[in-house]
Amino acid sequence: MTIATGESMPSGTMQECTTFDEKSGCPMSPASVEITDECQGKTIVLFGVPGAFTPTCSQRHLPGFIEQADALHAAGVDAIWCMAVNDAFVMAAWGRQAGAAGKVRMLADGNAEYTQLLRLERDLSKGGMGIRCRRFAMIIVDGIITWLGVEGSGEFGVSSAEHVLEVLRQPA
């Protein structure tokens, strides 16, 4: 059973690269991000994808949050985070290619440890992809999950930026 609305975000870390080598353009120096610390006093939209550079993730999911970043902030969101079971270098390169800087933080869960804390893992070993994150989006207010949308296999809808924006605009 996945984590649920009303639950606190579990204590744990993901990795993030925010600097790039001037000559090679490669991401450098991953840093740990303590999730519960970063959630305190903020409203955050966290969305998870099965993998960086994969078709739906690259063509629809991440671009939607980049395009809707201003609208999400206007609706009261302090930060937008993307997570995937990839390393921090891959997440940084994907974010750079997609134009996520200043709009979406690209968080890496290289060993699927945080994904498993959220109970949102999916075994795609038969397809050669190993343990991955389910496609989802959640709204976190001061460390508490106030809304969660998890997609079924092959689906894309409830975790889209547009749907999250609709949820945020609903009267309380």
Helix-strand sequence: EEEEHEHHEHEHEEEEH
The portion of residues forming beta strands comes to 25-35%
Q: What general outline do the C-alpha atoms trace?
A: globular
Mean pLDDT: 95
H/I helix tally? 6
Architecture blueprint of SSEs:
Blueprint: E1 13-16, E2 19-20, E3 27-28, E4 31-34, H1 35-39, E5 43-49, H2 55-67, H3 69-74, E6 79-84, H4 88-98, E7 105-108, H5 113-117, E8 121-123, E9 131-133, E10 136-141, E11 144-150, H6 161-169
Parallel strand pairs: 5-6, 6-7
Antiparallel strand pairs: 1-4, 2-3, 5-10, 8-9, 10-11
Question: Any overview of this molecule?
Answer:
This protein is of the alpha+beta class and 172 residues long. 28% of the residues lie in helices and 28% in strands. It is built from six helices and eleven strands. The chain has helices at 35-39, 55-67, 69-74, 88-98, 113-117, 161-169, and strands at residues 13-16, 19-20, 27-28, 31-34, 43-49, 79-84, 105-108, 121-123, 131-133, 136-141, 144-150. The chain has a five-stranded mixed beta sheet with strand order 7-6-5-10-11. The longest helix is centred in the middle third of the chain and has 13 residues, at 55-67. It is globular and about 50 Å long.
